[in-house]
Amino acid sequence: MQAVKVEVCDPARPGPWTPRVTLALVVLAAAAFVYVTAEIMPIGALPAIAVDLGVSEAAVGTLLAGYALVAAVATVPLVRWTAHWPRRTTLLFTLLCLVISQLISALAPTFTVLALGRGLCALTHGLMWAVIAPIGVRLVPASHAGRATTAVYVGTGLALVVGSPLTAFMSHLWGWRLAVVAIMIAAGAVLVAARFAIPLMAAPAVGPNRPAVLHHRNRPLMGMCVLTLIGVTGHFISYAFIVVVIRDVVGVSGTAVAWLLAAYGIAGLTAMGLLARQGDRRPRAAILGSLGGLALAFAVLAGLGFDGRNSFGTLLIGVLAIVGWGATATAMAPMLQSAVIRHSPEDPDGASGFFVAAFQVGIMAGAVLGGLLFELAGVPAMLAASALLIVAALVGVASGRRLIIGVGATSEK
User: What's 144's DSSP letter?
Assistant: First the structure.
């Protein structure tokens, strides 16, 4: 592998978290924050967009599924196309596309133009995720790779806790277009910060065709991607309708829904911090524990839904299940991506590209299946399907001991 042009981390130092490394990780987390906030912005602004552009709320809802589809299809080809670019250049390219896409969206006179603007953002969404985690990993020694990946994923958690509620609030007060402009300005600021805080980082020294061949033949890597797809599908079957679950199963409505959603996000951020070290030292145990906790949360919620009682006990158990859902689902993503990267040290960006593509397909499949189950069988059946798919992913991880590897994880083998 070629040397990084600007050396940031010196393994001889007593610790990797120098001010320069910390600043770079903060900027990477900020990039994740603005991208995810842009992705989920229509959730909170759905009624405002529908009224302004004269379309149905169902039509606005397709912006999310369409976004995931574009990201899933474009990620791997774009990762290959940019394989020889310096990593900072690739990141700056994705952020520039985000800024332009938000400008187009803010000025969109029709729903079609808005969809095209979001399409540009979706095109580079997967590419951004394919490079920011490997960049974070290369900033620190191998023994801290999982913690660096978790630091980057803090941006995702903040997008759920801060970004989405804030853009929804702005859309309600001043209109959805100003909310999009705010995302555009934030993305521009992150673009400038990334130019000066992130080292150039040469691309891995691999041939133009070699990464794809290696990845397709890397059975543990492909196995991780398949299990990721199954797990993400299971999660999004119910997450796409989490507000309905909170209202109809837990019994929380009105403004209290926002507070419970915030608790969901805060639990995720807390769990990421608590499991970051274990993600390096005992990644298999940490991932199995998270999958087990997530399956339990879905099973409890499904049981409450089938039971149908409306009592204080149902409320208390339901709130705890929602918090547990947020903690386990949010904490798992960085650990999964770290495991994927370790399966392909010669081309971590390409491996991340396959992981992100599988993740986006899971989002799309989960949203579609969740909608069908919601219409045909109801919320409890939807939650039960989520639990079954998460259990399937858990069994897959448990039965494949070579799937989860990591520095300091030899005791788990």
Answer: G
Q: What is the CATH number of the domain that holds 250?
A: 1.20.1250.20
What tokens appear for 153 in the block? 């994923």
Range of the domain at 224: 210-407
In angstroms, the CA 82 to CA 347 distance is 13
Phi, psi at residue 11, to the nearest 5°? -60, -20
Do 130 and 79 meet the contact criterion of CB atoms below 8 Å apart?
A: yes
Summarised one tens digit per residue, pLDDT across range 210-246 is 444 455 566 777 788 888 899 999 998 888 778 788 8
**CA trace torsion 189, 190, 193, 198 (10° rounding):** -170
Answer whether residue 413 is part of any domain: no
Q: Write down the pTM of the prediction.
A: 0.74
Tens-place pLDDT, residues 289-343: 899 999 999 999 999 989 877 788 888 999 999 999 999 988 888 888 777 777 6
222 shares its domain with 371: yes
Q: Residue 273: what pLDDT?
A: 79
Amino acid sitting at position 411: S
Q: Among 239, 242, 273, which residue's Cα sits nearest to residue 258?
A: 242
3-state secondary structure 36-101: HHHHHHHHHHHHHHHHHHCCCHHHHHHHHHHHHHHHHHHHHHHHHHCCCCCHHHHHHHHHHHHHHH
Nearest to 229 by CA among 369, 399, 31: 369
Among 186, 203, 220, the domain-final residue is 203
Number of helices and strands (H, E) in the chain? Answer: 15, 0
**Of 71, 199, 152, 149, whose CA–CA distance to 348 is shortest?**
149
Question: CB count, 10 Å around CB of 356?
Answer: 27
Within 240-311, where are the H helices? 242-245, 256-281, 283-307
In angstroms, the Cα distances linking 229 to 86, 211, 221 are 29, 21, 13
As a whole number of angstroms, the distance between CA 330 and CA 71 comes to 20
Q: Are 230 and 389 within 8 A, CB to CB?
A: yes
Q: What is the mean pLDDT of the chain?
A: 81
